[in-house]
Design brief:
Blueprint lengths: L2 H27 L3 H35 L5 H27 L34 H22 L6 H23 L4 H5 L7 H19 L20 H20 L8 H33 L4 H16 L7 H24 L8 H15 L9 H29 L6 H6 L1 H6 L11
Helix pairs in contact: 2-3, 2-4, 2-8, 3-4, 3-5, 4-5, 4-7, 5-7, 5-13, 7-12, 7-13, 8-9, 8-10, 9-10, 9-11, 10-11, 10-12, 11-12
């Protein structure tokens, strides 16, 4: 008899006998889906929503590229890809941890604290199972700050120099936006006071609008935009098809913008709420567009496509402060008021000789203020006084801070191109290349 074979057979049998108990021990040690599922699903939500909000960078670029004149398109494309890239670096270097400094209920967090991701292959025991991965959270918050900078880009188009603008972006994305954002989303003093801004009508959009307004005032209007009597001379954009594409891309990205701000996808209620936010977001955009379409037909005897596009965007901004609580009808009327705001505030800015090339200030600032106020109609925990306090705090901090920065840049670097460069176009003067070179060849 082969004793080796008998020994091996016995060992194998013993091993097989031990397998069930080993499996039970492993099952007992490994966390179940009930424990890790919320972490996995919320991380997935942040990644998917972040992808959508990132694509809004393309929407801003196409919208701006379509609404500026053809001689300035290359400049706008350069600004858009540069500002996103700068935002990504600055938010890693200091912005993320300045905005989310941990236990905090103050005014300013910690400067110069770069973001550190979870270790490679992090174990469940070492992960933040009550929330999401650091990488997904960082990426999702990053794309918001880039959207804020894009708002400024469009308003100041066709006459601002590239490098002073990018210096402003460094300060906006690395310092100003994170500080003010920490007041609400980082657990700061406005959050403690009860201010409510679900996805950023004020924290993101009004901040971009205030910074753009300050820049437009310091920069001044484009040459020939207003005559001495105050008459407005229209300067049509180069490509309304491109502007329309940009608007649809932004509309798509907004589902991530608002839906991801649920900040959880680990329960039936969370997933249902995300879908509710999607439906409300879409309704507000549609209502803003239709309202602008009808109003321009009534007021000007013909519909204005640029107003319709901005009406949709204003509807989106209006619902962003509270996209969860309203009914579909509630979202409809909130978005419709946003459309009204755009139609009336675009000419108001022209009367004040504030030149906003793409309508960013009416869309993001004025509709953002409205959306923040509208929270009180559907969120029983929000008070009008606290909402107005938040609006005022963000307005004073961002507008005054931006004015100071713009004036310093104007004194040190100069922020506006010279008259010849503006007439010839920034593509040639600042970039040395044209977006549509065949147009100038005759």
């Amino acid at each position: 008899m082969d004793m080796n074979r008998i020994t091996k057979t016995g060992l194998a049998a013993a091993a097989l006998t031990a397998l069930p108990s080993l499996a039970l021990a492993q099952d007992a040690a490994a966390p179940g889906f009930d424990e890790i599922g919320p972490y996995i699903m919320t991380t997935l939500l942040f990644c998917m929503a972040g992808f959508l909000v990132f694509f809004m960078a393309a929407g801003f670029a196409m919208l701006e590229g379509g609404l500026v004149r053809s001689k300035n398109v290359t400049m706008q494309m350069t600004k858009n890809i540069a500002l996103y890239s700068i935002a990504a670096i600055m938010y890693w270097f200091m912005g993320f941890n300045l905005m989310y400094p941990g236990e905090f209920n103050g005014y300013v967090g910690t400067f110069f604290s770069p973001t550190v991701l979870d270790p490679v292959g992090v174990a469940a025991a070492d992960a933040a199972l009550d929330y999401a991965s650091v990488g997904s959270d960082f990426f999702f918050q990053l794309v918001f700050v880039a959207a804020t900078a894009s708002i400024v880009s469009g308003a100041l188009a066709e006459r601002i120099k590239l490098w002073p603008f990018l210096v402003f972006v460094v300060l906006l994305t690395g310092v100003m936006y994170p500080i003010s954002g920490s007041w609400q989303w980082g657990g700061g003093w406005l959050s403690e006071a009860g201010f409510s801004d679900f996805a950023g009508s004020t924290v993101v959009h009004s901040v971009g609008g205030w910074a753009a307004l300050a820049g437009a005032i310091v920069l001044g209007p484009r040459l020939g935009k207003y005559d001495k009597e105050g008459k407005v001379h229209p300067m049509p954009g180069s490509n309304l098809a491109l502007a329309t594409l940009g608007t649809f891309i932004l509309w798509l990205g907004w589902f991530g913008f608002n839906g991801g701000s649920q900040l959880a996808m680990g329960t039936v209620g969370d997933v249902s709420d995300v879908s509710r936010i999607f439906a409300n977001t879409n309704m507000a955009a549609a209502a803003g567009a239709v309202t602008a379409l009808i109003l321009t037909q009534v007021m000007y005897k013909k519909p204005d496509l640029t107003m319709v596009l901005n009406g949709a965007l204003a509807g989106l901004v209006s619902i962003t402060a509270e996209p969860l609580a309203p009914s579909l009808f509630g979202s409809l009327w909130i978005g419709a008021v946003g459309g009204v705001i755009v139609v009336f505030t675009v000419p108001l800015l022209d009367k004040l000789k504030i030149d906003d090339v793409v309508g960013a200030i009416p869309v993001h600032l004025f509709a953002g203020i409205w959306g923040t106020i509208a929270v009180v109609f559907y969120n029983g925990d929000a008070s009008l006084g606290t909402q107005l306090l938040g609006i005022a705090a963000y307005g004073v901090f961002t507008f005054v801070g931006s004015l100071v920065v713009w004036f310093i840049l104007k004194a040190v670097m100069g922020i506006r191109v010279d008259e010849e460069a503006e007439i010839n176009g920034l593509d040639i003067a600042e970039m040395g290349m044209e977006a549509y070179p065949e147009f100038s060849k005759g």
